[in-house]
């Protein structure tokens, strides 16, 4: 099989992406990220089938997330050290194999090991994002990253819906078999569509990991955007961890299938993210960041009314996911300008902070919801929104003061 890049992948100067290739990378990010979330609506079915107690099924989600965290730290930086097309396609093929083995799990230990591996390999989505940024021109980078990140967020939001629908028809194992088939088709498309992307550094693996820590230590923009990202995904996780309890209880009493459809509302908000990417391309990162922070606060005000009004709840979901995706796109567009040959390592640092914020948001949201119910969840989310907005205003203002003035 030829390793030459397809003629329409980039222009002759290699600086611009074709629209079909951008869409392919968006699909790749979404399909890969979805693998992390299929198990959430399936916990009861899996528990009954494999005789896992209800109190222990939560470990399935935790193990998948731990695998993803390990992948962010130890696999994602390889995007700077290895040829990225081979790395992405190889990880996709390995993911498909792990998903098939997950579908045939016969006991809890087998399932836990395979979900850990699925989580580890699903960071292929985060290898794709910096590759897209590297292939894009400076003028288009924000828009390209916005499109790819829209695909990623839509994959996260729709994974629960797809898993619920498939499980009703063919059981929980069918979900992982279909997921494996999707990843195999994706791997073939990526091999054919992605251009060859040579390594950007020559170093040892230990030196590669050490350079991630140095980037965090020496790049104030990266540190600030890591903070914004952590607070962003924390709010996303607070909402999506608690909303199932709200919708399954009075006054809604919705079924699992209907609850899963709320992911469609979030996906609608994510679709507007490329517009924010174009705003970032125009040099308006400050306005985009502050606007997203304000949008978070508006969304939590609407969500607080969601206890009595499904319209307010849906509007709040759309706006919160729009704010989340908008700030994510602005963050990544900004950090990818820091070091052209270190985008995978920059992304590893950023996404580790992003993921840790989300994990913390989920953990706190569960406890707040059990004690203070939906109103407490909305207060928690709004408080995180205030901290985020204050961090953006103070942080970006200080960076502007420290920036060198033109002579």
Word description of this protein:
Helices cover 78% and strands 0% of the residues. By secondary structure, the chain is mainly α. It is globular. The N and C termini lie far apart (54 Å). Residues 1-15 have low confidence and may be disordered.
The structural class is mainly alpha
Number of strands: 0
Low-confidence stretches: 1-15
Strand share of the residues?
A: under 5%
Mean pLDDT: 85
Can you count the helices? 16
Helix content: over 70%
* Rg value: 21 Å
User: What does the main sheet amount to?
Assistant: none
H and E order: HHHHHHHHHHHHHHHH
- What best-fitting shape do the alpha-carbon axes yield? globular
CA distance, first residue to last residue? 54 Å
Summary?
The protein is an all-alpha fold and 407 residues long. Helices cover 78% and strands 0% of the residues. The termini are far apart.
Task: Outline the fold blueprint.
Elements: H1 19-34, H2 43-50, H3 58-74, H4 78-81, H5 84-103, H6 108-121, H7 124-135, H8 141-170, H9 172-193, H10 205-218, H11 220-248, H12 256-270, H13 273-281, H14 285-304, H15 310-335, H16 343-402
Task: Kindly list the characteristics that best describe this protein.
407 residues, disordered N terminus
């Amino acid at each position: 099989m030829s390793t030459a890049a397809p003629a329409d992948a980039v222009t002759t100067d290699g600086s611009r992406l074709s629209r079909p290739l951008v869409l392919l990378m968006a699909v790749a990010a979404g399909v890969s990220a979805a693998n992390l979330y299929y198990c959430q609506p399936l916990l009861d079915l899996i528990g009954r089938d494999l005789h896992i107690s209800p109190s222990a099924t939560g470990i399935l989600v935790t193990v998948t997330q731990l695998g993803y965290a390990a992948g962010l730290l130890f696999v994602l930086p390889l995007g700077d050290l290895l040829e990225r097309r081979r790395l992405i396609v190889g990880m996709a093929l390995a993911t498909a194999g792990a998903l098939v083995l997950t579908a045939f799990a016969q006991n809890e230990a087998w399932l836990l090991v395979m979900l850990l591996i699925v989580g580890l390999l699903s960071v292929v989505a985060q290898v794709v994002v910096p590759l897209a940024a590297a292939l894009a021109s400076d003028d288009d980078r924000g828009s390209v990253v916005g499109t790819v990140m829209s695909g990623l967020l839509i994959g996260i939001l729709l994974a629960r819906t797809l898993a619920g629908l498939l499980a009703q028809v063919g059981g929980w194992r069918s979900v992982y078999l279909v997921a494996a088939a999707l990843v195999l088709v994706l791997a073939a498309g990526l091999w054919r569509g992605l251009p060859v992307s040579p390594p950007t550094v020559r170093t040892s693996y230990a030196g590669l990991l050490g350079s991630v820590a140095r980037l965090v230590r020496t790049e104030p923009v990266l540190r600030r955007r890591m903070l914004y990202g952590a607070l962003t995904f924390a709010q996303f996780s607070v909402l999506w961890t608690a909303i199932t309890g709200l919708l399954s209880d009075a006054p809604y009493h919705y079924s699992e299938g209907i609850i899963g459809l709320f992911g469609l509302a979030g996906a609608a908000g994510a679709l507007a993210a490329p517009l924010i990417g174009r705003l970032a391309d125009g040099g308006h990162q400050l306005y985009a960041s502050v606007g997203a922070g304000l949008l978070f606060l508006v969304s939590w005000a609407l969500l607080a009314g969601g206890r009595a009004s499904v319209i307010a709840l849906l509007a709040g979901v759309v706006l919160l996911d729009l704010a989340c995706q908008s700030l994510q796109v602005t963050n990544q567009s900004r950090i990818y300008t820091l070091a052209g040959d270190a985008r995978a390592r920059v992304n590893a640092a950023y996404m580790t902070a992003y993921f840790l914020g989300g994990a913390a948001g989920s953990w706190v949201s569960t406890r707040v919801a059990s004690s203070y119910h939906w109103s407490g969840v909305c207060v928690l989310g709004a408080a995180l929104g205030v901290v985020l907005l204050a961090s953006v205003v103070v942080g970006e203002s200080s960076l502007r003061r420290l920036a060198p003035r033109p002579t």
